[in-house]
Structures are given as C-alpha cells and as structure tokens.
Specification:
Elements (H helix, E strand, L loop, with lengths): L1 H83 L4 E9 L2 E12 L2 E5 L7 H18 L8 E4 L7 H18 L3 E4 L3 H5 L3 E8 L2 E9 L1
Parallel strand pairs: 4-5
Antiparallel strand pairs: 1-2, 2-3, 6-7
Helix pairs in contact: 1-2, 1-3
C-alpha cells in the first residue's frame, strides 16, 4: 500500500514539475506576445505617420506644381500678347502618363466669342512656336529654384515671326533684360534684332576664317 502511495506521490511530483516548466514557457510566450504586440503597435503608428507625411508631400507637390504652372502660363501669355497684340493665351494641361507627370501646351484665342484651343504649332504657324519657346526659356530661368545665374543665350529667336511683329519681339527682349537684370547674348540674321543690343557684331566667313566686326555700340 505504501509502495502504491509513493508511486502516486512520485507521479504527482513529476506532474507538478512538468506543470511548473509549462507555466514558465507560458510566461515567456506571453512576455514575447506582449513585446511583439508593442512592436506591432509602434510599427502601425510609424506606418500611419508615414502615410500622413506622404499625403502632405503629395499635396505640397501638387500645390507647388500648380503654382509653377500658373507662373509659367502667365509669363508666356504676357509674352504672346505683347508680341502679337491680341487676346491669345497660353495654357498647360498636366496629366499622368505611365505614372509620370506629362505636360501638353496649348494656345487659346477668342474669335467672335468662341474660344479656340489649339497646339502652338497649329496656331499662326511657326511664329507662335518661336515665341512660346522663347517665353518658356525665360519662364523656366526665372522660376527655377535655386536661381540660375548667367546670361540668356539665344540662337535665331523668332526666326519664323513675321516682320509685322519683329519690333515687338525686340522690345520684349529689351524689357526682359532690364526687368530681370539678365544679359542676353543673341545670334540673329534679323537686322532689327541685331540693332537693339548694347553691342552688335557682324560675323562673316571669309575663306576658311570668320571675321568679326563691331557694327553697333551704345
């Protein structure tokens, strides 16, 4: 009888030891679960913060892009209206193309109360394209952050603009240089444009050599 009691007590002790070990394992598992839960909560908090930051960046980028768009539209529109003496306006359509920002350029005219929106190359031929290209270069230079220093270098600007408007182009370039305090270096075959500079040089090819002659200095 005593032997059976001793065996039973031994088994009970073994079960108690096993239970104690399992309780220890349970406590470690609970501790690990608590640590993991805290870490998961922190990760979720970080994800939420990053999503909010990304949203702020997106909104800020959209606002900055819209502001730049309006500035460029205004500068190019003023240039077009000054040169062509009309109600022509410049517009930029922004959209997403293959997950990249894409810009399409248009000019609009009011004709008998009807707004006509066309591509620059279709409106009045190459003259409008020349002025849009010129104005865009000036707009990008002046709105770039950080500022781009140095002269504005032009190669045959407004070569497709008719003589009726070439005087306006010259005046626009003069005012641009004075307003933005930026030197303009220009290569042109147009006599009027060559005469508006503070210094003008005539370059002639004689044989295999280029001869440069000062023809105008103010």
């Amino acid at each position: 009888m005593n032997d059976q009691f001793n065996q039973l007590e031994s088994k009970i002790n073994l079960l108690r030891d096993y239970l104690a070990r399992e309780e220890g394992k349970k406590e470690k598992i609970i501790e690990q679960i608590n640590k993991t839960s805290a870490l998961l909560e922190d990760v979720n908090s970080q994800i939420d913060l990053l999503e909010k930051v990304a949203l702020v960046f997106k909104k800020t980028s959209e606002f900055a892009r819209e502001q730049a768009k309006r500035q460029i539209e205004t500068i190019v529109t003023k240039c077009l209206q000054y040169v062509f003496e009309s109600n022509i306006e410049f517009e930029i359509d922004l959209n997403e193309l293959r997950n990249k920002a894409n810009a399409e350029f248009y000019v609009t005219n009011d004709v008998d109360g009807i707004s006509l929106k066309t591509k620059p190359e279709i409106s009045r031929g190459g003259g409008v394209v020349d002025i849009v290209s010129l104005a865009l270069r000036i707009a990008f230079l002046q709105t770039h952050k950080p500022p781009i220093e140095g002269p504005l270098i032009l190669d045959e600007p407004a070569k497709h603009v008719s003589e009726d408007y070439i005087y306006n182009v010259g005046e626009f370039l003069k005012q641009t240089s004075e307003m933005f305090n930026r030197q303009i270096i220009m290569v042109t075959h147009n006599q009027h444009l060559s005469a508006i500079g503070d210094k003008s040089y005539k370059v002639e090819l004689i044989g295999t050599e280029s001869k440069c002659t000062l023809i105008n200095e103010k």
